[in-house]
């Protein structure tokens, strides 16, 4: 194992080696991390559903009714009525013909992209797409092209040069980019896709539960229902549980039930997860108060950070990066913040390009204004003492 030991040593030399933080509490605004009470500004639990009493009650009921495991993959005997109900619930919420649940958003990308593309096809992918898209694309037999991040001229250049050489062309983008918080230029992407007869694929992991009416996502935000072919979402971020899904046409679902490898070869979601998720969507249908609180907190925090002079990039969503640049300085800042009572994770290569280190603040509907005030205070004083500001 010398070769791995020397790689680990290199991480340490670069100042980016880290131990995993350990939380002893549910995912709330204040958590106990490594034995210390801290303000949690790092979770994807946008709406506070991860520890919500209504979701927990449904999960417990489902455990009592179905047990803890589904017992098989969906295509054999692991397809319980609660999984079917969840598929229907998501299709209805997303206003699509059909939806199909996977075990995670990652699995969904890895399974869907390779299944719906083939030799002779071309995948055109945004340069900042999520790792699970990159891995999904790697597993596809199609050719690949990358367009500069959200650069519609570059996307059109590729379409112009290459469209005629391929059978199907699939344009893939994140709905909301997870490291910068900017929103994909979906109306233009859809327009180009129509013009060049390409298919569209949006991974809306950070848009679902956040953007659009009651958190219906980026497609809803831009009023593009029926115009995006594959809409991917996660059930582990705003929805607070675990799982992923693809929404779109019935034919897509029927095909994926035969060729979506994670569905065929990996056990289906825990029934308790399915039950909790259904309740989460019901709550979003009932009330916009969760998404409103999230956006209110997000606007409040961003204004405060700007006022203090932080560079918060060009986020359009609750994802709030604070740009630092240098990798080891980023990690040192995150560590110092933790010591002072705020947990904000440092994000460095390979998650973002080298030299683009940042801490990423994830605000949620759970935070009170006083938590945010206190956090900004700590960020400011720590940054001053480290010559970041
Ligand atoms: C988080 C994320 C995923 C993975 O979702 P999981 O359900 O956690 O596996 C996929 N795509 C994007 C864009 C993400 O941000």
Task: Please tell me about this protein's structure.
The chain has 389 residues and is an alpha/beta fold. Helix content is 42%, strand content 16%. The protein is built from 14 helices and 13 strands. Strands 3-9-8-7-6-4-5 form a 7-stranded mixed beta sheet, sandwiched between helices. Helix 2 packs antiparallel against helix 11 and helix 4 runs parallel beside helix 5. The mean pLDDT is 97. The structure holds pyridoxal-5'-phosphate. Pyridoxal-5'-phosphate (PLP) binds next to helix 4.
Concise summary:
With 389 residues, the protein is α/β, with parallel strands linked by helices.
Features:
globular, binds pyridoxal-5'-phosphate, 389 residues, 7-stranded mixed β-sheet, 3-stranded mixed β-sheet, alpha/beta
Low-confidence stretches: none
| Secondary-structure-derived class | alpha/beta
- What is the total tally of β strands? 13
Distance between the termini: 42 Å
Taking the sheet with the most strands, its summary is: 7 strands, mixed
Specify the helix fraction band: 40-55%
| Bulk shape | globular
| Heterogens | pyridoxal-5'-phosphate
* Count of DSSP H/I helices: 14
User: Over the alpha carbons, how many angstroms does the gyration radius reach?
Assistant: 21 Å
On the 0-100 scale, what is the average pLDDT? 97
Query: Can you write the helix and strand succession as a string?
Result: HEEHHEHEHEHEHEHEEHHHHEHEEEH
Strand order of the largest sheet: 3-9-8-7-6-4-5
Strand content: 15-25%
């Amino acid at each position: 194992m010398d070769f791995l030991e020397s790689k680990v040593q290199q991480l340490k030399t670069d100042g980016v080696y880290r131990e995993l933080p350990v939380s002893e509490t549910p995912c709330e605004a204040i958590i106990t991390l490594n034995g210390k009470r801290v303000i949690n500004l790092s979770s994807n639990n946008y709406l506070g559903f991860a520890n919500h009493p209504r979701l927990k009650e449904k999960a417990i009921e489902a455990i009592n009714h179905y047990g803890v495991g589904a017992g098989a993959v969906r295509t054999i005997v692991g397809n319980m009525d609660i999984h079917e109900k969840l598929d229907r619930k998501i299709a209805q919420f997303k206003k699509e013909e059909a939806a199909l649940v996977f075990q995670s958003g990652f699995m969904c990308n890895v399974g869907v992209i390779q299944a719906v593309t083939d030799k002779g096809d071309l995948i055109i992918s945004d340069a900042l797409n999520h790792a699970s898209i990159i891995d999904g694309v790697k597993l596809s037999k199609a050719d690949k092209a990358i367009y500069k991040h959200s650069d519609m001229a570059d996307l059109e250049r590729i379409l112009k040069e290459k469209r005629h050489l391929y059978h199907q062309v699939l344009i893939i983008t994140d709905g909301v980019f997870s490291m910068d918080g900017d929103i994909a230029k979906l109306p233009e992407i859809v327009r180009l896709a129509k013009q060049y007869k390409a298919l569209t694929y949006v991974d809306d992991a950070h848009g679902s539960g956040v953007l659009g009416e009651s958190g219906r996502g980026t497609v809803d935000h831009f009023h593009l229902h029926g115009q995006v072919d594959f809409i991917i979402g996660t059930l582990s971020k705003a929805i607070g549980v675990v799982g992923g899904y693809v929404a779109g046409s019935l034919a897509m679902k029927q095909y994926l039930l035969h060729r979506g490898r994670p569905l065929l070869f990996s056990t289906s979601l825990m029934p308790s997860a399915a039950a909790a998720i259904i309740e989460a969507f019901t709550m979003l249908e009932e009330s916009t108060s969760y998404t409103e609180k999230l956006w209110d907190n997000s606007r409040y925090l961003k204004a405060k950070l700007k006022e203090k002079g932080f560079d918060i990039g060009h986020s359009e969503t609750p994802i709030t990066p604070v740009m630092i640049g240098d990798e080891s300085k980023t990690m040192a800042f995150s560590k110092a913040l933790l010591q002072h009572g705020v947990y904000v994770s440092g994000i460095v290569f390979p998650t973002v390009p080298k030299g683009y280190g940042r801490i990423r603040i994830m605000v949620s509907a759970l935070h009170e204004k006083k938590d945010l005030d206190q956090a900004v205070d700590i960020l400011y004083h720590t940054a001053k003492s480290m010559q970041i500001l």
